[in-house]
Amino acid sequence: MKKIVTIGGGTGSYAILSGLKNLSDVSLTALVSMADNGGSTGVLRDELGVLPPGDVRQCLVALSEHTSVVRALMSYRFTAGKLSGHSFGNIFLAALEKVTGDFAQGVEIASEILKVKGRVIPITKNHAELVITLKNKKVVRGEDAVNHADLQEFGVEKIGYARKVLINEHARRAIKEADVIIIGPGNYYCSILPNLIVSGFVDAIGKSKAKIIVPVNLTNKQGHTMHWSVSDYIESLERYIGKKVDTVFINKEMPSEKQISLYKLNEGDGVLVVDDFKDKRAMRLPLLSRKVIKGNKGDILRGLRSFIRHDPLKVACGIQSVLKKL
Amino acid sequence: MKKIVTIGGGTGSYAILSGLKNLSDVSLTALVSMADNGGSTGVLRDELGVLPPGDVRQCLVALSEHTSVVRALMSYRFTAGKLSGHSFGNIFLAALEKVTGDFAQGVEIASEILKVKGRVIPITKNHAELVITLKNKKVVRGEDAVNHADLQEFGVEKIGYARKVLINEHARRAIKEADVIIIGPGNYYCSILPNLIVSGFVDAIGKSKAKIIVPVNLTNKQGHTMHWSVSDYIESLERYIGKKVDTVFINKEMPSEKQISLYKLNEGDGVLVVDDFKDKRAMRLPLLSRKVIKGNKGDILRGLRSFIRHDPLKVACGIQSVLKKL
Q1: B158 exposed, middle or buried (CB, 10 Å; 0-12, 13-18, 19+)?
Q2: Cα-flanking dihedrals φ and ψ of residue B80, to 5°?
Q3: CB burial class (10 A; 0-12, 13-18, 19+) of residue B7?
Q4: Contacts of residue A104 in chain B, CB cutoff 8 Å?
Q5: Could you tell me which residues are beta bridge partners of residue A247?
Q6: How far apart are CA B219 and CA B271, in angstroms?
Q7: pTM: predicted TM-score of the whole model, two decimal places
Q8: pLDDT range class, residue B293, cuts 50, 70, 90
Q9: Under a CB-based contact definition with an 8 Å cutoff, are residues B178 and B5 in contact?
Q10: Nearest residue of B to residue A105 by CA position?
Q11: Is A277 exposed, middle or buried (0-12, 13-18, 19+ CB in 10 A)?
Q12: Can you tell me the distance from the alpha carbon of A207 to that of A204, in angstroms, rounded to the nearest whole number?
């Protein structure tokens, strides 16, 4: 039984975990960022003083082997009254934290109820307020503000937390015992880095003998990573984790001309991650999803963004081929 | 396997079902009033247009064989922010109704998640607005208003619904196939009668060969049933159901002097249900709970009310002795 650890949060982790769930003879552990403070999650953090449930919820749903109705329930968002905008799953996790007095314990109980294959572990139990200092000394506080900020105009000088944020002991042990660690894909500054910068993370991954696989992002984010290439992501990641990545999954399947032109039209040049990676560590695979996801009405970008993304099963096949060689 | 059907809603049903859950070789079906429009339930009805979840939730928790944490989760009430005052279990049922598009189907899924022993069935799928006309022609609309109204000053002329409310087909069938039907205990006008007055109920119970057992209330409710005796309850009930009750459970265990005097002091004379029932259908049993429940601070009455109430296991033993004779 090979031990796989994923690191991320949000929709990137959702895609990876949805695929990995189908592999047999693996043990799955999802380490999840606790920096989110936007939307329904942000309101629950503010009003109830709970840890952010949103990213954990997505990972739980991805790994849930319960019926499709129960998974839909967890993602259901209220549209009226005072509950409007809240995802039911977020309320569920907030209530569990209140009842048990401990977020991580609440997540364990949620996992049991949702028949989760594997474990979902918050990267930290501490209150985690993301703080980015730009090179012009401007400070951006909170993941939601970071998500909407233009970090590239002046460049990022430092990324950290407002207070000390320690790695969760269960997360540390999972990293230590892993056979494979998968970092990403996902929102680089908001979902990936917030895991890597918790105190104790670099030490933990440094001591781990796990193979590190990075399914590199397919598209860049406005104001964050525009014009980044595969090398840019890998070099940046390696600076943060303090060691070399073992395998880089690079998509070799081209999006359609229409997808590319629509993307470029709406997001500008530099939105596609260019493959400039000259290294044997690259594994070039067909990783593109062909499923068409409908965007919200009037939200062209959101619809577009979901056009070019990883196919869960294709990524899982790639991971399996790595596992076979271990 | 004997088929037991309970009829009620709220804390009365909670007590009965918590006890019956421990009987082996029985199938349990809880029929639940859909009239509630107060508190968290009322807000969810108004804001989301869902059927009232509160009473169903209590029955689900009573019959749940899940861990105590999960049962506590269902009863957890938020105390801050926009969720303040809402019971998590109510939000859970409301979200399930939204996701499935059908309250009863949502209750089935909740039952599966909560590992419910038996079934919980809403007495109707229709929007049920309780309407009581008093003898002075004043009309009281909605269960919450009825709950707080003084019905005894002028007396009740008629109890019904604002619109036609039909019995749920699953409820009808459960009544038809039951070996034993237990009506009550509970809030007479707000939890018991709202079940008996749905269209089709009297016809269903009329055709049923089930033995009807009534664990009669121990205390009377201010403005509703003050000074009622056992006979008053049974005579009133029989008028509504159109047939004779088979067995009346009458508590023969005296509350303590202190309980009685505190009750009378706060609620006045006529709060205790006097046993005046001269009939062979009476079964006099020790039914009193000896568990002390703490009331909310500053809420003397609530604490008191919970002093004199049915013991779930003692009632269940009584039911079992009836079952043995069937």
Answers
A1: exposed
A2: -145, 165
A3: buried
A4: none
A5: A213
A6: 5
A7: 0.91
A8: low
A9: yes
A10: B69
A11: middle
A12: 5
pLDDT digits (tens, 9 = 90+) for B135-147: 999 999 999 999 9
**Would you state the structure tokens that stand for residue B260, as one six-digit string?**
């009685």
Tens-digit pLDDT profile for residues B5-20: 999 988 899 999 999 9
* Cis before B286 (ω within 30): no
Q: Which residue segments constitute the domains of chain B, with CATH numbers given? A: 2-124+169-323 (3.40.50.10680)
Instruction: Give the residue carrying structure tokens 């999972």.
Output: A174
Q: Find the CB nearest B76 among A69, A83, A99.
A: A99
- DSSP symbol at B125: S
**Interface contact B95-A82, CB threshold 8 A:** no
- Range 102-131 of B in CB contact (< 8 A) with A: 109, 113
Residue B326 is encoded by which pair of tokens?
A: 């069937």
- Confidence bin at A267 (pLDDT 50/70/90): confident
- How far, in Å, CA of B322 to CA of B210, rounded? 12
Residue of A nearest to B114 (CA): A113
The tokens describing B141, both together, are 């609309």
- CA nearest to A126, candidates A159, A155, A169, A83: A169
In three-state secondary structure terms, B314 is helix
Tens-digit pLDDT profile for residues B248-286: 999 999 888 888 888 888 888 899 999 999 999 999 999
Name the residue with tokens 């899940």: B66
CA distance B15 to A303: 51
Size of interface A-B (CB pairs under 8 A): 75
In chain B, residues 51-80 whose CB comes closer than 8 Å to chain A: 67, 69-70, 72-73, 76, 78, 80
Query: Which residue type does B153 have?
Result: E
Strand partners, B229: B274
**What's the pLDDT score for residue B164?**
97
**pLDDT at residue A325 in the model:** 93
The answer to whether A43 and A85 are in contact (CB under 8 A) is yes
Are the CB atoms for A217 and A41 separated by under 8 Å? no
- Parallel, antiparallel or unpaired: strands B26-32 and B119-122: parallel
Distance CA A91, CA A72 (A): 14
Distance from CA of B39 to the nearest CA of A (A): 14
Locus of tokens 């296991």: B313
Helix-strand-coil percent breakdown of chain B, rounded to 5?
45, 20, 40
- How crowded is residue A106: how many other Cβ atoms within 10 Å of its Cβ? 26
pLDDT digits over B22-40, tens only? 999 999 999 999 999 999 9
Residue B81 CA to residue B245 CA, distance in Å, equals 48
Instruction: State the complex-level ipTM.
Output: 0.89
Percent of chain A exceeding pLDDT 70 equals 95
Determine how β-strand A180-183 pairs with β-strand A211-215: parallel
Which residue's structure tokens are 């059908």? B102
Tell me the three-class secondary structure of chain A, residue by residue. Answer: CEEEEEEECHHHHHHHHHHHCCCCCEEEEEEECCCCCCHHHHHHHHHHCCCCCHHHHHHHHHHECCCHHHHHHHHCECCCHHHCCCEHHHHHHHHHHHHHCCHHHHHHHHHHHCCECCEEEECCCCCCCEEEEECCCCEEECHHHHHHCCCCCCCEEEEEECCCCECCHHHHHHHHHCCEEEECCCCHHHHHHHHHCCECHHHHHHHCCCEEEEECCCECCCCCCCCCEHHHHHHHHHHHHCCCCCEEEEECCCCCHHHHHHHHHHHCCCCECECCCCCCCEEEECCECCCCCCCCCCCHHHHHHCCCCECHHHHHHHHHHHHHHC
